[in-house]
Amino acid sequence: MKSDKAEAIFRRFQQANPEPQGELRYKNPFTLLVAVVLSARATDAGVNRATPALFAAADTPEKMTSLGETGLKKFIKTIGLFNSKAKNIIALSKILNEKFGGKVPYDREALESLPGVGRKTANVVLNIAFGEPTIAVDTHVFRVANRTGLAPGKTPHEVEEKLLKIIPQKYLHHAHHWLILHGRYVCTARRPDCPRCLIRDLCAFNEKTVDGLRQKAASSNASRQSARRSNPRR
Ligand code: SF4
Predict the structure, then answer these.
(1) Among all residues, which ones are annotated catalytic?
(2) Rounded distance, CA 156 to CA 119, Å?
(3) How far apart are CA 112 and CA 87, in angstroms?
(4) 9 lines ligand 1 (CB under 6 A)
(5) Ligand 1 atom closest to Cα of residue 208
(6) Residue 94: which H helix or E strand, with range?
(7) Residue 210 lies in a domain
(8) 112: in domain
(9) Is 126 helix (H, G, I), strand (E, B) or coil?
(10) Residue 118 belongs to what domain range?
């Protein structure tokens, strides 16, 4: 994609939503880190249902360590993979206490050295807690970047590198939020809402959907016809 098109895409995202926010709830950099670790292969809504009580009980590495793995599991048992997540959160809390003075480090390498923290989680924390212009490529960002032609790539890291090159600097800070929200609510995996999409004319996807109402009418006509064929007396 040419850079002027990328500029136009992000100009529209910014006009539509000047201050996009992530949807995970948190109180400080530590609870943000915990929420992001919990959100792996789980929905933000599911994590948000569990974390208010958890963060009321433990919002620092010290309190989390005191809670212990068994105590933590009681708060997060509704979240997928909670056993391994509890193990990682207690282990990373201990490391934060022992090596980083109980603080979340403002350092990619240090973040990625923590149990359960990969590049994507580090990017989210660096972006939201420290204001770094990083792009966390989750499933939504990966899909939107590929479909639109903005940054096609086979791996999240490849997409991330391309996005960092093509997105104008002034949009980088909010870019991953705009892309996530666009992927979550408009350019969805199974049925992108192309008629309602504000970047439709700039998107390179060959299989854009057509008007939803017309499609709905066409599909109910098709099911009526198929019902008549299977039962001609109706
Ligand atoms: S036009 Fe459709 S495929 Fe392209 S970004 Fe918009 S919703 Fe996604």
Answers:
(1) 120, 138
(2) 10
(3) 16
(4) no
(5) 2
(6) helix 82-99
(7) no
(8) yes
(9) helix
(10) 1-190
